[in-house]
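Annual report, structural modelling task.

Input specification for the iron/sulfur cluster complex:
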Amino acid sequence: MLQKEGYNFAFDQKACKNCSGYCCTGESGNIWVNKEEIKKIAGFLDLSSDDLVKYYLTKTHYKYSLKELKIKGNYLCVFFDDKNKNCSIYEVRPKQCRTFPFWDYFKDNTEEAFKECPGVKKSNYSVLKNFRLMADYLCIDEIYYILCYVSCMIGYPFQMSAD
Ligand code: SF4
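The model returned the following structure:
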C-alpha cells in the first residue's frame, strides 16, 4: 500500500491487476509529456521523436499531450490496449501516469480519486503522522523531566545549555 504525505488516501497497486483501466479511459483529459519522455517512448516504439509527435501526440499551446481515441462516447489514451486492458507502453509511461493517483488535484478532490480508481483506499496517514510528531515531542519532554529528576536526586541539578 503506497501512502504519501499530504494525501488523505492510500493506493493499493494490486488493484491494477483486476482494473479495466479507469485511469487511462473515461473523460477526455491531458496526459502531458516532456522532451525526455517523448524520446523514451519513441525509443521504446522504435520510432523517431518526430514520428511519435506526428502520430501519437497533440499540441496544446506549447505542451504535448498523448492523443485520445473516442470509442462509444468514451475517451481512451492512444496507448491504452483495450483488448488486454493495460498500458502498451507501461515501462516508459509518462510521469503523470506513474504518479497517479498522487496528483495535486486529488489533494482537494479526494472523493474523485475514490470514484476514479478502485485502488484508492482510505488512509490514516495524517492521523498517524500527527500522533508520531506528538509522541516525539512528548518523548523529548519526558526525557528532559527524567534528567531533571535524576540529577536533583544525585545532587547535580540538570540544566539545559543556554547556547
Ligand atoms: S500512457 Fe499508459 S498509463 Fe498513461 S494514460 Fe496512456 S495507457 Fe494509461
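The chain has two domains: 11-121, 124-163.
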